[in-house]
Design a protein that fits this description.
Layout: H1 8-19, H2 25-29, H3 34-61, E1 73-76, E2 91-93, E3 98-103, E4 106-111, E5 122-124, E6 129-131, E7 138-139, E8 145-147, E9 156-163, E10 168-170, E11 183-194
Antiparallel strand pairs: 1-11, 2-3, 3-4, 5-6, 6-7, 7-8, 9-10, 9-11
The structure holds FE2/S2 (inorganic) cluster.
Length: about 200
């Protein structure tokens, strides 16, 4: 009976070799190197970061104001608007912080905030004009500057009018008036304030 004894050093070496865990066997089995594997991890992390960034951008650009609250849309009934004339007194919309001005050339939604230093002005019926109590700026019922330290006309909000025939018309870049004759709906976007034009 013969026995073979392997050299001590070699035995340990063989044991160590077999005991060494195969590094990422699945990866090796699929022929993917460690470097490629790390690239995949890095790519996946980058994609996740981009997805999160995109989500954050979309979240911040989405409208965050509900209809009927300042910053959102206000829907008005044209039949409830002041009758149009050159001297028509505007009516306040306190929730929307705008004056509903319906004059001979159309409808405007005028901001209630004075363009000088931000006071709230009033409509003065006896003088048929807006007058600011802080420093005396005055404006017509169309929001045009008359006198005082205010640097520009009253600011206004973008409006869209929907007519009985289904057509629509939106105020221009200056927030110009839109006719509400034969209209069935007025929409005022208090999230879109348009600066009044400066005067000479
Ligand atoms: Fe209106 Fe100064 S804030 S005139």
């Amino acid at each position: 009976m013969t026995t073979t004894t392997a050299p001590r050093g070699k035995a340990v070496s063989a044991q160590t070799k077999s005991a060494t865990p195969a590094a990422t066997p699945d990866v090796q089995a699929q022929g993917v190197s460690r470097r490629e594997f790390l690239y995949y991890i890095w790519g996946a992390s980058l994609a996740l970061l981009l997805a999160e960034s995109s989500g954050a951008i979309i979240w911040f650009t989405l409208p965050r104001f509900r209809a009927g609250e300042f910053g959102g849309l206000f829907t008005l009934d044209p039949a409830a608007m002041p009758t149009a004339s050159t001297t028509t007194a505007p009516a306040p919309n306190s929730a929307g912080k705008f004056w509903m001005s319906n004059t001979d050339d159309g409808f405007r939604a005028l901001s209630m905030v004075c363009t000088h230093l931000g006071c709230l002005f009033k409509w003065v019926p006896t003088n048929t004009r807006f007058e600011c109590p802080c420093h005396g700026s005055k404006f017509t019922n169309k929001g045009n500057y008359i006198e005082g330290p205010a640097p520009r006309n009253l600011d206004r909000f973008a409006i869209t009018v929907t007519y009985n025939d289904g057509s629509t018309k939106t105020s221009d870049a200056n927030g110009g008036p839109v006719s509400i004759a034969n209209a069935r709906l007025i929409s005022v976007d208090t999230g879109k304030k348009i600066k009044g034009q400066t005067h000479g």
